[in-house]
Design brief:
MetI-like fold; mainly alpha
C-alpha cells in the first residue's frame, strides 16, 4: 500500500481557517439575511464594474478621439430617437453615458477610498495617542475633534480649494481638484475614528497583557501598534464601510456644487451636475442614471455596514 501524502502545515492551516469560517456565527448571520446577500452582491458587481471599466465600457470618455459632439444628447436606446450604439444615451459632450458611469464610478471610488484611508490613518493614530498617553495630549486632541465637528466637509473643501488656488496660482484647477477632494474628505471624517479608538484604548491599556508588556520594557509605540491596536480595530471596520458610502456622497455633493472634479473627469457627482443643467429641457437620462447608480451603491454599502455592525457586536449574538 502506498502511504498517504502528509498534509503540509500550510494546507492544514487553510483547512482550519475554512472550517472556522464555515462554522462561524458571522457566516451564518450573513447567509440568513437575504437583504444583506443582495446588498453584498450589488456592491461586488458595482466594484467589479468600476475596476474593469476599461474592458467593459464600449468607449473611453477620457479619450477625445472617441467622442463626437454630433452624438450629444442622444436618448437611451429604447427611447424614440435613440441610437443602438449608446445603451443609456449620451451627455452634452457626446460621451456614451454607460461608459461615463463606469468610469465615473471608478473615479468616485478612488476619491472615496483615498479620503477614507487618510481619515482612518489620521483618526486611528490620534485616537491611539490620546487614549494611551492621556493627559494634556488627550485633552488637546479631543478639543480639536470637537472643533472639527463644527465644520462640514463642504466648508473644509471650499477653504482648502481657496488656499490651493492662492498658493498655486499658475496651476490649473483641473490638476488640483482630486487632491482637494481627497484631503477634504480625510479631514472631515477622522473624528469618528479618533473617538472610537480612544474609547477602546482607554479600556485596553489597563488590562493585564498591556501591563505585562510595560513591565518587560517594551516601548510605548510598539505596545500601541502590536498589542493595543489589534484589539481595538474591530469597530473601525464598520466605520470604514459606512464612511466609504458617505465619502462618495460627499464627493458627489462637492462635484455637484462645482468644487469637485471638472467636467473632463466624469465622476458620478460631475455627471449629475451636468445632467441637472439639461433636466428641464427633456434630457432626463443624463441625471437619472448616474443618480440611480449612486443611490444603489450607497444603499448597498450601508446595508452591508449595518449587517457588519450587528455581526461584530457580541451583545447581539
Amino acid at each position: 500500500m502506498t502511504p498517504e501524502p502528509a498534509t503540509t502545515p500550510t494546507a492544514a492551516a487553510r483547512a482550519s481557517a475554512w472550517a472556522r469560517l464555515r462554522d462561524s456565527d458571522i457566516l451564518a448571520s450573513f447567509l440568513a439575511s437575504k437583504v444583506t446577500m443582495v446588498s453584498a452582491f450589488v456592491t461586488v458587481v458595482m466594484l467589479a464594474g468600476a475596476a474593469f471599466a476599461p474592458w467593459i465600457a464600449p468607449t473611453n470618455p477620457f479619450d477625445p478621439a472617441s467622442v463626437d459632439l454630433l452624438n450629444s444628447l442622444l436618448p437611451p436606446r429604447w427611447v424614440e430617437g435613440g441610437d443602438p450604439q449608446f445603451l443609456l444615451g449620451t451627455d452634452n459632450q457626446g460621451r456614451d453615458l454607460w461608459s461615463a458611469i463606469l468610469y465615473g464610478m471608478r473615479v468616485s471610488l478612488i476619491v472615496g477610498v483615498c479620503g477614507v484611508a487618510i481619515a482612518a490613518t489620521l483618526g486611528i493614530s490620534l485616537g491611539l495617542l490620546a487614549g494611551y498617553l492621556g493627559g494634556r495630549l488627550d485633552a488637546f486632541i479631543m478639543r480639536v475633534a470637537d472643533i472639527q465637528l463644527t465644520f462640514p466637509a463642504i466648508l473644509i473643501a471650499l477653504v482648502i480649494d481657496g488656499v490651493v488656488r492662492a498658493l498655486f496660482k499658475g496651476v490649473a484647477r483641473e490638476h488640483t481638484a482630486f487632491g482637494v477632494l481627497v484631503v477634504s474628505i480625510g479631514l472631515s471624517f477622522w473624528v469618528q475614528y479618533a473617538r472610537t479608538i480612544r474609547g477602546s484604548t482607554l479600556v485596553e491599556k489597563n488590562k493585564d497583557y498591556v501591563q505585562a508588556a510595560r513591565l518587560i520594557g517594551i516601548p510605548a509605540p510598539l505596545i500601541m501598534l502590536r498589542h493595543v491596536l489589534p484589539n481595538v480595530i474591530g469597530p473601525v471596520l464598520v466605520i470604514l464601510t459606512i464612511n466609504l458610502a458617505l465619502a462618495i456622497i460627499t464627493e458627489a455633493t462637492l462635484s455637484f456644487l462645482g468644487v469637485g472634479l471638472p467636467p473632463t473627469q466624469p465622476s458620478l457627482g460631475t455627471l449629475i451636475r451636468i445632467g441637472n443643467d439639461f433636466l428641464f429641457s427633456g434630457e432626463w437620462w443624463i441625471v437619472a442614471f448616474p443618480g440611480i447608480t449612486l443611490a444603489a451603491f450607497v444603499l448597498a454599502v450601508n446595508m452591508v455596514g449595518d449587517w457588519l455592525r450587528d455581526a461584530l457586536n457580541p451583545k447581539l449574538r
